[in-house]
UniProtKB/TrEMBL annotation:
One Gene Ontology CC term in the entry: Golgi apparatus
Name of the protein this chain belongs to: ADP-ribosylation factor-related protein 1
Keyword Magnesium: yes
Pfam families (alphabetical): Arf
UniProt keyword terms in alphabetical order: GTP-binding, Magnesium, Metal-binding, Nucleotide-binding
Keyword Kinase applies: no
Alphabetical GO biological process terms: Golgi to plasma membrane protein transport; intracellular protein transport; protein localization to Golgi apparatus
One Gene Ontology MF term: GTP binding
Positions contributing to GTP binding: G29, L30, D31, Y32, A33, G34, K35, S36, G88, N144, K145, Q146, D147
Length: 211
């Protein structure tokens, strides 16, 4: 009897120590911003199976835009991240709000070369932030396609999107220049999320609501 009790205690402790914590990350942005490429690059970098280090990511730059939802799964230590890559075409953006409540953080990807649609991208981000259900969620703004010579840098995107304006006070935010295609700063972006999400009061609230 004592033995079985001890076994239960140790198996419980083992489960506690090895159990993975799961967080849901919304990956948003206009069509052709590079959301699916980002998701695939993340999976490549944090892949446990294949030894992909040093290998180029073979992704068609003219990838068909996502319709609906693509899910990427990453494991970093005891943390499991689900990347919800949602379609960014105009007619699909209305579905974004259906996923806000369950998101621990939001990654918003911008095509830094698409000057004609930067204003639209900014408007859509403001629309996301205006929704009460994203309150308290860390916002990671990624200025993608930094491998292109005509890309606006992260400082420009930071200013243009008003990430340091009064409206953003009290929010947990970061702006990072990346190349989803080449992998530049992709690892750093995920590491930032893994660092900030557990510290957010929103994270505990989502946990309680899911019980």
């Amino acid at each position: 009897e004592d033995g079985s009790g001890m076994y239960t205690l140790f198996s419980g402790l083992y489960r506690l120590l090895t159990e993975k914590v799961q967080y849901q990350i919304l990956v948003l942005g206009l069509d052709y911003a590079g959301k699916s490429t980002y998701k695939e690059q993340c999976e490549r970098i944090f892949s446990k199976s294949a030894k992909l280090e040093g290998k180029d990511l073979h992704i068609d730059e003219k990838m068909t835009p996502t319709v609906g939802l693509n899910i990427g799964k990453l494991e970093i230590g005891r943390v499991k991240l689900l990347l919800w890559d949602l379609g960014g075409q105009e007619g699909l953006r209305v579905i974004w709000q259906n996923y806000y409540a369950e998101a621990h953080a939001i990654v918003y990807i911008v095509d830094s070369c698409d000057n004609e649609r930067l204003n639209v991208a900014r408007k859509e981000l403001r629309s996301v932030l205006a929704d009460d259900t994203v309150k308290g969620a860390p916002i990671l703004l990624l200025a993608n396609k930094q491998d292109k010579p005509n890309a606006r840098d992260d400082k420009y995107i930071n200013t243009y999107f008003g990430m340091e304006s009064k409206e953003m006070e009290g929010r947990i935010t970061k702006v990072l220049g990346i190349s989803a295609l080449k992998g530049t700063n992709v690892k750093e972006s995920i590491e930032w999320l893994v660092d900030v999400i557990p510290k957010c009061p929103r994270t505990d609230r989502i946990k309680l609501e899911s019980l």
